[in-house]
């Protein structure tokens, strides 16, 4: 077995956390390739090193004094090094960072040092070889991620390394310029290493024991999800659940490598397995409920629109012309609605209305704002009779008015549009009918 293990910032925020991580890695010889994030928060009032590094670069680029910030960052690393009793000195490393800043280096380089330095500590602590992500994670000259070259570089480099530490979050362009992924991108590095090394499992260690069936800020003590498929997770993550970076899913999904989301502070907990497909029956009909507020709908009414060739295309083209994406397009015989992100619509609102008038000559256009979308997701919903009925009767009992319904053709999800103010009540009602009522 070969496992790639990624540890998030809170798992590596202090020497004590590093020790827990060390114990986890040493507990299984299969845990061979380690991807560290930068040190995260030690408590709610603390700062993430990555945030400090962005502040450092901003301050320096405005020509302001930054010595204090850099000392603060250095102190975070020195505390970890001392706490672990390592013989490691970052004086030169910090001199290099300061020199580069004076030379006007880009923000990505500075931000990436969080992972780079934590990787150096991890490598010394575990006695695993250090592989600089700048040598194996490739972006092209335009800054686009280069998956083929990355796959090749990683495979070649790891072929002769039984163990390695590869810092997360960054890589480099062909000319050596360091570039980062978007925030939370160490998850992506871990997934790329798992893919290139043909790992059997990608363990993603964080500070929660996997995915929960609903947002714990809305539902009290939601049941953890033991197994979820990639498709289900996509449906949920797109609706706001953010345990894993969504770009971390694609490389693994293609290879059928499962992800196990685990908790560094509760290593006995099996966490959540994310798999391509499974026969394992979910405990409840639904796997989870996700959702997001802040949508708007544009409803176009026109008699006989169903007989008009190209109607839908012309409507969507109006949104394309202003560079907007859309979420859903429920339609009726003479109506067609487009659900979009409200904040994306705001700057283009009048342009969209004018564009629709010009292109489809509607009888009426109606805008509605402050809507929320809720995704009820589950492989168990397939071929299960009455799921929709249960959802809507639960919502009716909770006095929630349903504005839109959209069942994905995969029967994997039902999307419900409600008013923003009904969002929490709707999620609670759905959770209660499928989970509490079953316990
Ligand atoms: N340290 C980076 C961030 O805070 C990347 C990561 O932790 O995955 O976004």
Summary of the model, kept short:
This protein has helices at residues 15-27, 49-61, 67-84, 91-102, 107-126, 133-136, 147-159, 186-196, 230-237, 249-255, 311-321, 342-345, 349-360, 387-397, 423-434; strands at 3-7, 31-36, 164-165, 170-172, 178-180, 201-206, 227-229, 259-263, 272-275, 288-301, 335-341, 364-377, 404-407, 413-419. It is of the alpha/beta class and 439 residues long.
What does this structure look like?
With 439 residues, the protein is of the alpha/beta class. It has two domains: 3-275, Acetylglutamate kinase-like (Carbamate kinase), CATH 3.40.1160.10; 288-438, VC0802-like, CATH 3.30.2130.10. The protein contains 15 helices and 14 strands. The chain has helices at residues 15-27, 49-61, 67-84, 91-102, 107-126, 133-136, 147-159, 186-196, 230-237, 249-255, 311-321, 342-345, 349-360, 387-397, 423-434, and strands at 3-7, 31-36, 164-165, 170-172, 178-180, 201-206, 227-229, 259-263, 272-275, 288-301, 335-341, 364-377, 404-407, 413-419. Strands 3-2-1-6-8-9-7 form a seven-stranded mixed sheet, with helices on both faces. A five-stranded antiparallel sheet has the order 11-10-12-14-13. Helix 1 (15-27) packs across helix 3 (67-84), helix 3 runs parallel beside helix 5 (107-126) and helix 8 (186-196) runs parallel beside helix 10 (249-255). It is globular, with a radius of gyration of 25 Å. The mean pLDDT is 94. Bound molecules: aspartic acid (ASP). Aspartic acid is lined by residues 9, 37-38, 48, 50, 114, 168-169, 183-187.
